[in-house]
Amino acid sequence: xxxxxxxxxxxxxxxxxxxxxxxxxxxxxxxxxxxxxxxxxxxxxxxxxxxxxxxxxxxxxxxxxxxxxxxxxxxxxxxxxxxxxxxxxxxxxxxxxxxxxxxxxxxxxxxxxxxxxxxxxxxxxxxxxxxxxxxxxxxxxxxxxxxxxxxxxxxxxxxxxxxxxxxxxxxxxxxxxxxxxxxxxxxxxxxxxxxxxxxxxxxxxxxxxxxxxxxxxxxxxxxxxxxxxxxxxxxxxxxxxxxxxxx
Length: 247
Prior knowledge:
By secondary structure, the chain is of the alpha/beta class. Helices cover 28% and strands 28% of the residues.
């Protein structure tokens, strides 16, 4: 069966196992934050993983390429994005390994069931409320702003879905770290690892990667910073390695 790719869409190489992703430039295309999260998260043999706010499905596809989990699911509220994700899964022949579900993160535990997953990943909307919004129906706006779900919604539902000792992986913005940690602890997901991501070595961080453990004890490891660029338009060696190719 041939996967349909529309004239306004493009096919991007993911640099892993020959996998490709169907993207619509008019919608929200994935960025480096999704790639970094898929590298930071680990899914062990036999585990089931769920990606919330999956968008066009890039994270489940990259997770499948890099890990030996039993099954990967993605939850997406926007029908157009869910359709893109499903077609990318089909294009790569991953229908038996990855399921894309259209639904609301706020009801995720009802959709997937409580204590049903060992791993959850999420690249959620970063911006609070209505700040800077001009059109709340726009796909990019929904991806960037907490219109359809809040940080608390994401963490609450993750806690319900995760099994005891299940792992929670998230990429977010450092300016919300206090809120992130408070909310994680409130819902019994203990922050265990954190890595700040800097655009350049001499710039302040603009992303943070976090791992939490449901029911874990209080102890966090602060890992060495990850620097993206060594000079304009030239990635550091570690970023090239994460992307799956060398300079």
